[in-house]
Structures are given as structure tokens and as C-alpha cells.
Amino acid sequence: MNMMLRTAPVWSPWDRFVTPAHRVHRRPEASPSTFRPAANIRREAEAYVLTLAVPGRQKEDFRLELDQDTLVVRGEGKDLDGTYTRREFSLESFERRFRLADNIDTGAVAATYTDGLLRITLPLKAEAQPQTREITIA
What CA–CA distance (Å, rounded) separates 53 from 85? Predict the structure, then answer.
């Protein structure tokens, strides 16, 4: 007997801060291809770090834009020359959109590309960063 197990989507506290726009807008036509690079999002003390796995490219192949509360990441495709016996990957163009929360300092967003990983740092605004201070006992 064949049974299909369905599970509910897992909620993450990250969903409050950055939500992939495809979940909100459901616009498949927004992407020029079906390729969607894998993304990791990590919370650090003063920022979120969004990392996309996009090997085989140069930093000039990417275009990042801030469109109001949305981060748009685009990658240009490349043709792989030659005759292949087997071809399991390509360097297609892509577009990913991430909605940013109000606590992101959009004026200080920065990006680097090394070893096939595009890292985008999304700093928190000063008022959103955890404030700690030592209290002396009298």
C-alpha cells in the first residue's frame, strides 16, 4: 500500500525579518529561468547574512538592487562551450527576491563573492540591535 506523508511547513523566526518574495507574490514570471540558487540565511549579532550558492561565475555576473523593501539578486547566465557526453548543470540566468524587514539598515547592505558563494550582509538598524550594559551593584 502506498501512503503519502504530508508535513506542515516549519516556521522559523527568520520569517519575520526576511521573507522570500516568491512566497508572498507567487509570480513565477518574475524569474527569467527556472534555476534558483540555494540560499542560507544566518543571524549574527548585528546583521543577517544571506548566502547564495552560485559557483562558476565572476562577481561581475551579479546585479543586486534594493527596490523599496525588497532585495533583488540577479545573475547572468553563461554558455558552456563544447560537446558534452553528459551535462548535469548549466550556468543559467536567475533572479531571487527577498523582502526585507523594517529593522534592516538598507543603506549599509554589502556583498562579497568568493569560492562560489555570494554573501550579502544585511545590517540591523542601531535601534534593532540588542543593547546590553553592565549594572553595578551598590
Answer: 25
Give the long-range contacts of residues 70-77, CB within 8 A, separation 24 or more: 70/21, 70/97, 70/98, 70/99, 70/100, 71/18, 71/97, 71/98, 71/99, 71/100, 71/109, 71/120, 71/122, 72/96, 72/97, 73/97, 73/98, 73/118, 73/120, 75/37, 77/33
Residue-wise pLDDT for 104-133, tens only, equals: 999 999 999 999 999 999 999 987 566 677
- DSSP letters along 39-54, please? EEEEE-SSEEEEEEE-
Highest mean pLDDT among 7-11, 98-102, 118-122: 118-122
Closest CA to 21 of 59, 75, 64, 73: 73
Q: How far apart are CA 61 and CA 77, in angstroms?
A: 8
User: Could you tell me which CATH number the domain at 17-78+88-126 has?
Assistant: 2.60.40.790
Give the sheet arrangement for strand 70-75, strand by strand.
Answer: 18-20, 94-100, 70-75, 62-67
The H-assigned helical ranges of the chain are 21-25
